[in-house]
TrEMBL record:
<dbReference type="InterPro" id="IPR050129">
    <property type="entry name" value="Zn_alcohol_dh"/>
</dbReference>
<keyword id="KW-0560">Oxidoreductase</keyword>
<feature type="domain" description="Enoyl reductase (ER)">
    <location>
        <begin position="10"/>
        <end position="360"/>
    </location>
</feature>
<dbReference type="InterPro" id="IPR011032">
    <property type="entry name" value="GroES-like_sf"/>
</dbReference>
<dbReference type="InterPro" id="IPR020843">
    <property type="entry name" value="ER"/>
</dbReference>
<dbReference type="Pfam" id="PF08240">
    <property type="entry name" value="ADH_N"/>
</dbReference>
<dbReference type="InterPro" id="IPR036291">
    <property type="entry name" value="NAD(P)-bd_dom_sf"/>
</dbReference>
<protein>
    <submittedName>
        <fullName>5-exo-hydroxycamphor dehydrogenase</fullName>
        <ecNumber>1.1.1.327</ecNumber>
    </submittedName>
</protein>
<dbReference type="InterPro" id="IPR013154">
    <property type="entry name" value="ADH-like_N"/>
</dbReference>
<dbReference type="GO" id="GO:0018452">
    <property type="term" value="F:5-exo-hydroxycamphor dehydrogenase activity"/>
</dbReference>
<dbReference type="Pfam" id="PF00107">
    <property type="entry name" value="ADH_zinc_N"/>
</dbReference>
<dbReference type="InterPro" id="IPR013149">
    <property type="entry name" value="ADH-like_C"/>
</dbReference>
Length: 362
């Protein structure tokens, strides 16, 4: 039996359709027929050759929901349910080793140096070959943490929970706003929209979203933003003044950088109040540098600067719960759906930011 997959063979070139033999499963592996695969912002950076973790040739796609087609041995979900063929499932994209210092001592599997992510750091030349979601099928690793999807849920609505949703959940696990706080989110893509939703869920009263896409800024309002700032119309110093005016001259209690570039991080540092916190969760790959003044930017103002690297199963669970609590809201994030054969068009639509979220429906 063969499966069609779309393979990245050269950076900045269209993905190539390939037929890949489906191998016999090893113990613990699960063959999944993909029902929905998200086009993540990270996929664009991988496609453009900006992610140093990538091994070519590779099937892109690390956000997936699918139906169990076959299982080798007994396999349980995170909730302890036994998987069976035909189940609709969702999984944590990363598989950590469980035994290194970061996994076993710090209990921070997102930092595991042996962490494997299908669609990001496994070539299609490596077993089990079907290692990404831009395909008809994927074979999940034996260590994958799996959730059963409730009956009636649109698979497309859940895909973003495994990456942008989980990363946002990780960030708010590290730094949470207090009820009544003012939170600024820089970057209104899917990651920023999840940040808005989490900020409101944790009690932030004022949530300000800054970005350059009117469509995404309008979406930010639907997710709970109370103020939106179009960076093409409101310049840097004007944005800072708006935030100072809203906070009695202090600055924001928490600023979330969700854009993944140096300019956004520098602006985040300038917008936070003394004693506040900056969450930098947008850097999935190198995004440039800036001149950092340890005295003026950090120590003198006593701010907390917190990086966020990927996520673990706990965060996937929280993002999934967030979506399932308000699926109609998160369905609005999905502005474009494409059949698998139009994957290159889907990438282009995301690259030009015409889409908020594009999803492949194989």
């Amino acid at each position: 039996m063969k499966a069609q997959a779309y393979v990245l063979e050269a950076f900045n070139e269209p993905l190539t359709a390939r037929e890949i033999n489906i191998p016999n499963l090893e113990p613990g592996q699960v063959l999944v027929k993909i029902k929905a695969a998200g086009i993540c912002g990270s996929d664009l950076h991988i496609w453009q050759g900006e992610d140093p973790r990538v091994k070519l040739p590779m099937i892109l796609g690390h956000e997936g929901v699918g139906e169990v087609a076959a299982i080798k041995g007994k396999k349980l979900t995170v909730e302890g349910e036994e998987l069976k063929e035909g189940d609709l499932i969702f999984w944590n994209r990363g598989v950590s080793c469980g035994h290194c210092y970061y996994c076993a001592v710090l209990r921070e599997p997102s930092l595991c140096p042996n962490r494997v992510v299908q669609g990001i750091n496994i070539a299609t030349t490596e077993p089990p070959y079907l290692n990404g979601c831009y395909a008809e099928y994927i074979i999940l690793q034996p260590g994958a943490d799996i959730f059963r999807v409730p009956v009636g849920v649109d698979p497309a609505v859940l895909v973003a929970a495994s990456c942008s949703g989980a990363t946002a959940a990780h960030g708010f696990d590290l730094v949470r706003p207090e009820p009544g706080d003012t939170v600024v989110v820089i970057g209104p893509g899917p990651l920023g929209l999840f940040a808005v939703a989490f900020a409101r869920a944790y009690g932030a009263t004022t949530v300000i979203v800054s970005g350059g896409s009117k469509t995404r800024l309008e979406m930010g309002q639907q997710f709970g933003a109370t103020v939106t700032l179009d960076r093409h119309e409101v310049q840097d110093e004007e944005r800072r003044q708006v935030i100072l005016d809203l906070t009695h001259g202090r600055g924001a209690d928490l600023v979330v950088e969700a854009a993944g570039n140096a300019a956004a991080l520098l602006e985040a540092i300038t917008l936070v109040r003394p004693g506040g916190a900056v969450l930098s969760m947008g850097f999935g790959q190198p995004g440039g540098t800036f001149a950092f003044d340890g005295y003026q930017h950090l120590a003198r103002r006593n701010i907390r600067l917190q990086g966020v690297w990927v996520s673990d199963t706990r965060h996937v669970y929280r993002a999934m719960a967030m979506i399932l609590a308000q699926p109609e809201l998160f369905a609005r994030m999905i502005t474009h759906r494409f059949p698998l054969a139009r994957v290159n068009e889907a990438l282009e639509v995301m690259a030009c930011k015409e889409a908020v979220k594009a999803v492949l429906m194989p």
